[in-house]
Amino acid sequence: MTEGEAARTGARKAHTWQSGLNNAERANSFNPATPLPKHEHENTTHMQGSETRSSRSSHAAENVGSNPTPASTLTIEGSRSKELVCPECGSNERLVKNGHRYGRKNEDIQRWLCKNCGHRFSETRLKGSDVSEHAQRIHRQILKTTSTYPSNCRVCVADGAMINLAEVESRIQEKAAGATKTQADIKGAIVSFAWYLKKNGYREITIHVATNNLTILHRRGADLFNPETVKETIANQKWSESYKLNMAAIYTLFLKMQGLTWQQPMYKPVEKFPFIPTEKEIDDLIAGCGKKTAAYLQLLKETGMRSGEADKLKWIDFDFERGVVSVTPEKNSKPRILKISIKCIAMLQNLPKTSDIVFGVTTINTKRSSLEHTRKILARKLNNPRLLQIHFHTLRHWKATMLYHQTKDPFYVKEFLGHKRLDTTQLYIQIEKALFKEMSDEFTVNVASEPEEIKKLLEVGFEYICEKDGLMFFRKRK
Predict the structure, then answer these.
(1) Which backbone phi and psi does 31 adopt, to 5 degrees?
(2) 1.10.10.60, 3.90.190.20, 1.10.443.10, 3.30.230.70: which CATH number matches 279-414?
C-alpha cells in the first residue's frame, strides 16, 4: 500500500468512528477486541443515516447495507464494559442503530432496533445503571399517571395543610365505582323498559324511539329515577312543544313500568300546516339523489305511503306487469293496493336485488342522513332553501293535498291514504283551500260518449260529473 492510499484509508476510518458517536462523552465505539480484517481490500465502510455498516467480502461477497456490527461489541464510556440487550426479548444479537432522540438538556441519545422482535428502545444515560434495565424501564413506564409517583406523596394545599394522595385516590375510585353502578342501573332500566313495551304489544319502531328518547334524557343530565330532574331537563331544552310533550309521555310510560307516577308537565303544541313543496321542487330533489334514494322518493311521491311502509316492501309485493304495489299498513291503517307509473317501475327494476327487501336492511336514520346530505348540496346549488324542508313524510302530505285538489272527494283520499277516520283526512282539505284559494273556479268541460273518448279525457286529468241523454260530462279546472 502506498502512503497516499494509507492516508485515505485512515481518513475513512476516522470519519466512520466520529459518525458512530452519540456525543463527546457518551458514545458507542468498536470494541478493541474485535479483530481487524486480514486484507486491506476486504474492508469497505459504508454510511447510511447514523448507522455504520461494514461489508466484508470472503469467498461469498456480502452486499452493501448488510447486517451492522453486533451491539454486543459496544461499550459505554465512563463505566465498565456492559452488553446491550433488547429489553423485550433479551437478545443481544441483530441490534442495529435506529435514529436518535434528544433529552431535556438537548443531549443526543442513541436509539436501537431489535431485528429479532422489532422492538425499539434507547440506551441509558444514568451512571451505574444497567443498559438493558434502563431501556426496559423506559419502554414499560407510563408517564403522567398516578403509578409514576409514590402513593404516599404529599402536596401542600394551604398553610400547613397536607393531604395524602392515596386517600384522594381511594375516594376517586369509590366515586367512580358509584358512577359505574348508576350507569349500569340506568342501562338495565332502559332494557327492561324496552321489554315492557314489547310485552304490551308496541311496535318495533315505537320501542326504538322510546328507548332512544330515554337515552337522550339521561345524556342531557336527567336522573331517570328522579322525576323532578327529568322535568327540569326537558324544560331547559330548546325543543319544540310537541317534542317535549312526546318526551314527557314516554317518561310517563317508564314510570308506569316501575309502578310510579308523576305530575306530567303541560305542553301544548302549536298547530300548523305541514310544508307542501311544489312538484318541481320534488322532482329536482329526486333528480339530485342517488339511484336507490331516487327510486325511494319516486315511490313515496306516487303512492303517498309512509316511509315505514316503504321500508318493509319486498320484491314479491310488486306486480310490475300490472303496475301495482301491495302495501302492508302501519299505525293501524288499512292495507291497500296502489298504482305506480312506468317511470317508477323502471327505477325500481334498476336497483340491485341483493335481498328480499327492496330497499335493503338499512335503518331509517341512514336513509334520512343520506337525504339531508343531498338536500344541503341541492339547496346551495339551486339557491332554493325550501328544499331543506322536504322530508320523507312531506311527500305523503303533498300527495294527499294534490289528490284532493284533483278529485274534491275526501272519502277517496281517505281510502287512498289508508286512514280509518275521516277526521284525519280533513287536514288536507284545509291545506288545499289555503294553497289554491286564489285559483279561479273556471273549468274546461268536455263531453264524451265513446269508451276511447272517455279514456282520453280521464288520462289528461278530467273528472266525471254526470250523464244525460247518453252523454257523459267531464270537467277540468283551468
Answers:
(1) -70, 130
(2) 1.10.443.10
Strand order in the sheet with 336-339: 318-319, 324-327, 336-339
Residue appearing with cell numbers 274546461: 444
Residue type at 468 in one-letter notation: K
How far apart (Å, rounded) are the C-alpha atoms in residues 417 and 303? 8
Which amino acid is it at 384? N
Q: What is the DSSP string of 344-381?
A: HHHHHHTS---SSBTT-S--HHHHHHHHHHHHHHHHHH
Select from 384, 424, 418, 413 the least CA-distant residue to 278.
384
Calculate the dihedral angle through the C-alpha atoms of 84, 87, 90, 96, rounding to the nearest 10 degrees: -50
N-to-C CA span, the chain: 112
Residue from 315, 356, 308 nearest 332 by CA = 308
Least confident span in 147-156, 344-353, 438-447, 469-478: 147-156
- Is-contact 85 132, C-beta < 8 A? yes
Dihedral pair phi/psi, residue 445, rounded to 5°: -110, 135
If DSSP codes are grouped into helix, strand and coil, which group holds residue 27?
Answer: coil
Judge whether 162 and 155 are in contact, CB under 8 Å.
yes
Which residues 6+ apart lie within 8 Å of 149 measured at CB?
165
Nearest residue to 28 (alpha-carbon basis) of 93, 125, 106, 165 = 125
Contacts 24+ apart (CB under 8 A), 420-426: 420/332, 420/333, 420/334, 425/400
> How confident is the model at residue 5, as a pLDDT?
56
The domain spans of the chain are: 3-146, 176-257, 279-414, 443-477
And the C-alpha cell for 72? 454486543
Q: Grid coordinates in use for 199?
A: 310485552
- For residue 215, what pLDDT is reported? 93
Average pLDDT over residues 317-339: 91
Side-by-side strand order, sheet with 108-114: 95-102, 108-114, 120-122
Contacts of 256 (CB under 8 A, 6+ apart): none
Summarised one tens digit per residue, pLDDT across range 282-305 is 999 999 999 999 999 999 999 999
Q: Among 283, 304, 271, 276, which residue's Cα sits nearest to residue 435? A: 276
Contact between 122 and 141 (Cβ < 8 Å):
no
In one-letter notation, the amino acid at residue 453 is E
- The predicted model scores a pTM of 0.54
d(CA 288, CA 311): 21
Q: How many Å separate Cα 184 from the centre of its chain?
A: 24
Question: Hey, what's the cell of 471?
Answer: 252523454
